[in-house]
Amino acid sequence: MNLNGKTALVTGGAVRIGRAVCRTLAAAGADVVIHYNRSATPAEALRHELVAMGRRAFCIQADLGGEDAGRRLVAAAREVAGPLDVLINNAAVFHQDSLLTLTARALRDEFEVNLFAPLLLMRAFAEACGDGAIVNLLDRRIASLDHSCLPYVLAKKALAEATQMAALELAPSIRVNAVAPGAILPPPGEGAGHLKDRAGPVPLQRQCTPEQVAAAVIFLLQNDALTGQIIFVDGGQHLL
Ligand SMILES: NC(=O)c1ccc[n+]([C@@H]2O[C@H](COP(=O)([O-])OP(=O)(O)OC[C@H]3O[C@@H](n4cnc5c(N)ncnc54)[C@H](OP(=O)(O)O)[C@@H]3O)[C@@H](O)[C@H]2O)c1
Question: 27: domain CATH number?
């Protein structure tokens, strides 16, 4: 897919990794719909930045919880930006909950944002858009049994399977791929030391960046031969 002149919807696109994805899409020539939930000010600042790059850029607020959130967001994005070509399922929540500390509420919250929302957005995108490409943001922990954040890892593992099932079901018109980052940014409010303490050994002994995650997203979008692929951007950590 040549991204020049295409339109992409990025969930959770205002800050952190989502912002790097939006910037990289714009640099590749795409117009961008920046979805946000609470980050209204950063979303608007990013919109100005992308417009200054010569792109059309739009902001849409939505909480991704609930049955109709996916259809509503895709409809709202099409209303402001016209037909969509690309969906990036980036929005997520992350909590440290093991089997012994989790609650039903925490399980629901993790699954709602990290699994149900991307699934329902993929359905809404497929219903509304004839052709296109989807990239889901996973986590290198899909290759592990990291039980310190059990609901999060379970939801991401299920989304990895769903990526490949959707790739089959939506072929040949829509390609569905995923990127599984390693420890890229500490949780909001935590310093860089948080990652050093918790990330564990990385074979390439280097910290991966949001821009490297975004570059993998763009590669998957641009290469029309790829569907059902998962690229780990984690310095090789998933191999351990
Ligand atoms: N950070 C890492 O090191 C890392 C590592 C592995 C995998 N990943 C994955 O990579 C992706 C991006 O990571 P990140 O750390 O940049 O993500 P993040 O900061 O944890 O979340 C991205 C955005 O998701 C949105 N969001 C959360 N709950 C929502 C809800 N109920 N409705 C709508 N939007 C909601 C928030 O938007 P607002 O701010 O607008 O509220 C948030 O800024 C995620 O899928 C994550 O699981 C990240």
Answer: 3.40.50.720
Instruction: Tell whether 110 is covered by a domain.
Output: yes
What is residue 112's three-state secondary structure?
A: helix
36 has catalytic annotation: no
Closest ligand 1 atom to Cα of 184: 3
Q: Give dist(CA 69, CA 90) in Å, integer.
A: 15
Q: Note the pLDDT of residue 190.
A: 83
Per-residue confidence at 170, pLDDT binned at 50, 70, 90? very high
Catalytic position from the list 152, 155, 213, 220: 152
Considering the domain boundaries, does residue 1 fall inside one? no
Of the two residues 189 and 136, the one the predictor is more confident about is 136
**Residues of the domain holding 81:** 7-239
In DSSP terms, which residues pair with 175 in a beta bridge? 133
CA of 170 from ligand 1 middle (Å) equals 25
